[in-house]
Structure formats: C-alpha cells, structure tokens
Amino acid sequence: MSFDTLGLAPELLRAVNAQGYTTPSPIQAQAIPLVLAGRDLLAGAQTGTGKTAAFVLPMLQRLMIDNNRAGPGERRPRALILTPTRELAAQVHQSLRDYGSHLRPRSTAIFGGVGIQPQIQALRRGLDFIVATPGRLIDHMQQKTVDLSNIQVLVLDEGDRMLDMGFLPAMRKILAALPRQNRQTLLFSATFSDPIRELAGQFMRDPAQVQVSQRNSIATTVSHRVHPVDVSRKRELLLELLSHDSRRQTLVFGRTKHGCDKLARFLEQHGLHCAVIHGNKSQGARTRALADFKGGRATVMVATDIAARGLDIDQLPAVINFDLPMVAEDYVHRIGRTGRAGAEGQAISLVAPEESRLLRDIERMLGRSIDVEPVLGFEPSQPLAAARPAGRAPGRAPGNAPGRGAGRGGAGRPSDRDGAAPGGRRNAARPTRQRNGRSADSGQVGTGAAAAGRDGGQHAPRHADAHNRPRRSRRRPQGSATS
Cα–Cα distance between 469 and 436 in angstroms, integer? Predict the structure, then answer.
C-alpha cells in the first residue's frame, strides 16, 4: 500500500514524499480514511508508529482543501490539538507545518514557559490550527484572547493522559467552550484503559475504534532486562553500564526532579556529557537540553516522565529506568522512546528489592516476565520479591487491574508533567495539592500537569517528591511517517 491509495490530495502527497515516506504505517492506513470520512476516532498504536501523521494529514485535507481555507475575514481557529507537554506541542506543530508546507495553514503553538504576548498577537491575526497544552490555553480563555466557538476538529494527542484525573478538570473547561454540533473528535495514544474509553464516549459521537497492536503493548524490536541492585548502589551500576560505551545515546528516567538533577551532576563529575529535562527547568533550558541530546552534544539525557511521551528521537539505542515508574502504563511510554520505526532498542531497568511490587505491576500489564540479570559485584543484599510463577507470564492479581502501579494502598503516582490547569507566572513555583493527593507541577502557565497546576511543568505533578505520592489515576508515531 502507498499513501496514494488513501485519498490524500496531491499537495499532501508531495509533502509526505518530501519527508521521505512512501508507505503508510498500519495506524496511518487505518486511521486516515476514517478521519477523512469525518468519523470520530479512538486510535491506539505503539509509540513510534506514525500517529501524528495519522491525524495531521487528513485534518489538513478536510480543513484546508475539502472545506477550503477560511476567508480573510475569518479569524477563529477551526482545529485544536491538545497535548500534555510543551515539547510534544512544539513537535506536533512542526509536523503540521511540514505536512502543510504546500497549503500554508495559519497555525501556532500555545504553551507556557514562554511569553504570552506573541501568542496573543498570532491569535489576533487569525488562525486555522492551534496546538496547545491545556493550562496555557485556559489562560487565554480567561483573558478572552482566544475564541474556540468555531472549532470543527478536536484532537487529543496522548489521549489517555489528557483524560486522566490530573488533566480532567481543565479538559472539562475546554470542552465546555467548544461547539457540540458538527465537531469531529480524535483521540490517539499508545495506551487506553477501559475507564478512559468510557469517559471518552461521553463527548464523542459513535467513535470508530482502531487498535493496530495489542493494548499497552511494546515494540517487539526492544529487548528488556532487569538488573537487581540496592538503592544505595544504583548510581554506581548506572555509571558502570554507561561506561561500556560512552558514545551511545541513552535516555535515563528518574522519578523526581531533584533526583534527576543529582544524578546528572554525578554523571557529569565522572566525565559523561548530560542533558536534563524536568518540569522545574525553564522552557529555554528544556529546548536546549533536547537539542543537545538530539544533536549528539550530550550522550545521556536524564529526565522525568515529562520526556516519556511524544518525543521523537531518531535511532535512540537505549532507555534506562533508573527508577521504575509509579504507574505501569508509563513503562510503555518510556520504552517507546527506543525501538522506533522498526529499529532495535534496549530497555534496562535498575530495580531495588523494595521496587519489586512496581516490577510485578509492569509485568502484569505486559502479560509477560522480564528477564532478571544480576550484574557481578552489584548483587542486592536481598533478592527481588518472588512473584512470578516460573516459566510463564504473571497472572493478574485478584481485584487489581493491569497497570495500576503501586496499588491503591501503595505509593500512588507522583507527577512531573506540563500542567493542566491555568495560572500565571506569579505562582510559578508553588506546588498545590489536588483532592487525589497529587501535587501540581505548576509554573509554566500553559502546558502542564495537575488540575491545580499552572501550565508549567514546574512543580511535580507526575514526579513529585516521594512523600507527595497520590492514589492512582488511570490512565505517538511516527512510523512510516514518524512525525
């Protein structure tokens, strides 16, 4: 199959060809015709399989070609794409510009951590498309600088995150400002829980469902292994692993922002060039860190889960979980940064005995065991808790749904994402607590994480300090066309 068979206009086919793609990925082949037909869509596919192109291409055709471009007098945007993080918003906006290069759509990215005035000016000039994070978009709504009454297409990228408890209050405000009639709604993500699907059904119209891989699955080209180690020796073991090939690009995930900073300083002191991304970093610092890592100037990037979704890093050979994620589904998104578009990748987790429960949750979600390989000289003082029947994949614990992380009575989920609720910079450094116990990663006025946070990725919704851990909240693509 080629892109020519999907019903795309010549202008879009030229843009796809310019990006070097000829064959659509499975998610693109199935989703594009449905979107072109005007259907609401709930689409699930592994990360790295082209989900962004699967909605950007048909959306451009529907609004810029089939319906014709809005006239000079029409300033209200017609499409809204919402993402959970600033980096993903910027990346999706670039894809929109790349694939629309022969159509020249009027578009802008709206997120926090940067000045709001250029965004206001762009909105005043008139737009066809807005790519936004929820918090900063609500800031514009409160200041009455954006009019969403003409939105014809709504896209929730990383739809499971956009509808989890941290983002839900902000999402309800945004949905209330959108027209109900004749609006097409598209949800794309690598993971969807049943409660999220049920919630999506409340504001979608008879959505078609596309699932091109097993739910919550990971690429078969990625190898997985666990190295058991005491918490006190994790840094030494990480340094040992990284020193085997100091030129290999490696993404290291930590749980807290402070912990990521300390780990990066430790690695720098031992001669490794590191970049760091988390919610307390300014947007400029985050952009530079990602550019340094992508450009090879930094061989190691240490990040909280703010980097787990949407980031497209070509040919990333390895991801290391210095800390296991508190929510099992986040393992899928973290590991999705490697093994993209059919490439091989490694997923390595450093697991302390006290993290055994988190490992079991991940294995339950995956429906398989992960090989445990002790490293000589780093064996833990006690073994990982036995929980897997030998020789077969773990079963589901009674009453415990897959991917529920540490369980209801356990550590819950800290956060470090780019906020969901509105706010201003004057409160940028003030974490706030939500009813479910999650502290908001606020301060970015527009891309954020928790319901009380700014848009900011500045104070830990998803990866707050351990003592702020909440209960569980339930919880891209790039394939043939990787953006």
Answer: 9
Give the confidence band of 262 by pLDDT, cuts at 50, 70, 90: very high
Q: What is the pLDDT of residues 304-320, one digit of tens each?
A: 988 777 677 777 889 99
Contact 289, 316 (CB under 8 A): no
pLDDT at 436 over 60: no
Closest CA to 125 of 139, 137, 107: 107
One-letter identity of residue 332? V
Tell me which residue of 284, 292, 223 sits closest to 264, measured CA to CA: 292
Beta strands in 279-344 (DSSP E): 300-303, 318-321
219: left (phi over 0), alpha (psi -120 to 50) or beta: beta
Enter the tokens of residue 460: 């830990």
Domains of the chain, CATH where assigned? 3-211 (3.40.50.300)
pLDDT in tens, 316-358: 889 999 999 998 888 988 887 787 656 788 899 999 999 999 9
* CA 17 to each of CA 24, 34, 231, 373: distance values in angstroms, whole numbers, following the listed order: 11, 22, 49, 44
Q: Quick check: 193 and 403 in contact, CB under 8 A?
A: yes
CA-closest candidate to residue 163, choices 180, 187, 184? 187
Beta bridge partners of 350: 227
Distances (CA, A) of 479 to 261, 295, 312, 313: 32, 21, 10, 12
Give residue-wise pLDDT tens across range 371-393.
999 999 999 999 998 644 433 33
